[in-house]
Amino acid sequence: MTSSRMSVGLLFLLVSAVCGGELTVSHSPSTLRFGHAETLRTSDLDDVLAASLGYTPVQTSLWPGLTITSPFSTPTAAVLVEVHSGGASVRQEGATYGLKEDVSIDEVFNHIKKVYGSRAQRHTLFKHLTVDTSPNDSWIHTIPKTKVLDYSQEPDASFLREMAALVTTARTAEEITTIPHGGQDVIFLEVSGMEQLVKKYGANSPQVEEASSVLRAQLSKVVELMREVYSDRVVVMSATVEESKQLSRRARSILQAAETNEPNVNKSYSSDYPAIFNIILWLSIILVLAILAISMSMWNMDPGRDSIIYRMTTMRMKKDN
């Protein structure tokens, strides 16, 4: 695994210097607060996601943008949408931060799956979804209407098909979720159509401006869908990255070649596990407090003649005499 990480790092250095994108938190439950903070590195993104789900981060100092207001009602899911923007800004609603791309989002997913998946104490799903743009009746009639983008030519058509299929792909969360069995979900989605538009028309072109508007609208639908599926107990983020799609695919192939085939679902636990854990935890706390109280009472007991211990021992001594 170490050699694969080195290979990915060298690959990034050979292609370009460290890129910069944006991270937008579109929705988070009331138990989490995302405030003002500086740029977040993608290598720290897995810790932020894990901390949001209630895990102790690997690093001792967590990114200051995240504040956990209550550890007793953690989100049941974390959803991240990776957008290959080609350098264009999407300008979404929500808390937005600079994103320093020192590792790929694919490596973030693999790291959170390996490190935090092994520590999970309940059924946990890790799923990385790429939007499928092959013709499908479920979305073919929902292609967004546009004024500047032309569906009869590429790459406009590929982008519009991807936007139509994005919501349909996100809806698969309803089918694969582990929430009914007391689990947690970590879902990554990936879209790359805008990157080709930027290459052809330029980042400030009318086509890219309209594409950004379409993408914002589709991402809003994904956010509403995830809030519905997970009853608002979900963190929904989108990462706009400048990293090219080809680099992302090659980095993913290196990581997959270095790892053994593992299922996306972590080892399962009984649905009674949370109840049993809480019973044992609180019973242990009560017993410790009870022993402490009894010990303190005995330590401060008055040894005078009015104590029952003194009276009992005195009577025995008189009988012996």
Automatic annotation (TrEMBL):
Predominant subcellular localization, coarse grouping: membrane
A GO BP annotation: positive regulation of Wnt signaling pathway
Subcellular location: Cell membrane; Endoplasmic reticulum membrane; Vesicle
Membrane spanning stretches: 275-295
Occurrences of domain Renin receptor-like C-terminal transmembrane spanning segment (ranges): 259-320
Gene Ontology CC annotations of this record: bounding membrane of organelle; endoplasmic reticulum membrane; external side of plasma membrane; vesicle
Secretion signal span: 1-20
Protein name as it appears in the record: Renin receptor
Lineage of source species: Eukaryota, Metazoa, Ecdysozoa, Arthropoda, Crustacea
Gene transcribed to yield this protein: ATP6AP2
